[in-house]
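#onboarding

Welcome to the new folks! Below is a worked example of what a typical request in this channel looks like: someone posts a single protein sequence, and someone else replies with the predicted structure as tokens. Don't worry about understanding the tokens yet, we'll cover that in week two.

Example request:
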Amino acid sequence: MTNGVSTAGQRIRSVTTRGVMVPLKFTLGTSAAVVRAVPLLLVDLLNEDGVTGKAYTFCYRPSGATAISSHLNEAVELLKGKNATPFEASQTLARQFALLGVTGAVRMALSLLDMAMWDAAAQMHRAPLSALLGSGPKSLRAYDSRGLGLMEPDSLAKEVRTLLESGLGAVKVRLGYPTLFEDLAALGAVRKSVSGADIAIMVDYNQALSPAEAVLRGRELEKEGIYWLEEPIAHDDYVASAALARELKVPVQIGENLNGPDALLRAVTTGASDYVMVDVARIGGVTGWLHAAGIAAAQGIEMSSHLMPEVSTHLLCATPTAHWLEYVDWADAIVEEPLKIRDGMVLTPESVGSGISWDEAKLKRLAAI
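Example response:
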């Protein structure tokens, strides 16, 4: 039992994984890549109680789906015959994979398995995952992260108007153009297009800048009233990030690449950012998220989610310093019940488990990996 959370042990019977490519409604150009379709890996984890836990993860590259699936299947074999809670499974597998290294595809595989086990546990308790975690379904403030990649200002102005039709009151803009002038032109086009509306604008550099350039651009961007400055420099340079956070008035946001709760602890104790953003697939699944949420609460730092909003809604409900949900609709192409938006908020599913159920008809229309 942790944080008031109690789950029954499970014995895994079998696991099925499958990868698909999901075309994006909005091409996403970043300083790192141009993304037109995303590779998702789906897992069905059947336990001896006849309950199937479901989860998915974004794999970044098609080859990632293959690697993650391989590690996940090996992890399942290590757990077979054992009655284990998600916490116990997480500890066992961390030890088993220690010499290989619990990073990258290994970390994502173990996180995905953990998510599926928690989904099954919530189903066995006949409760939403958020309730099993000691909270309950809530309406969450969210920002639209589906588009506004690197493109011409006129295209940005048009796309932001389309995005706002979803009903959310915040958007993320990707920057990292060759010059500060181009960054300001892009941001200006978005702001002018939503002039008169109460819209929060987050900015993400995807680690494109040097520390010196980040100070230069950050000082100019903070004059534009942006909500936060996300990953302006290398994500793991905590010392430089802390210096940047001290230098700028605009809040610095990092965290999506943090590998496990221990990395989060190092980042926040270094003062590397004003806010943190945690990716459930990199932090250690639901189990890792709960540890991370405790660290964020102890440090008094607000914590947002990165991708996988279907499960992240539940986790933010149980996060003491919950901040923003990053909303993308990528899983709409694979699930029966997409997330709902009402009154500018994303609704946490009230169905048992995480609420994820595959839409097989939709899946048949997608390219397999």
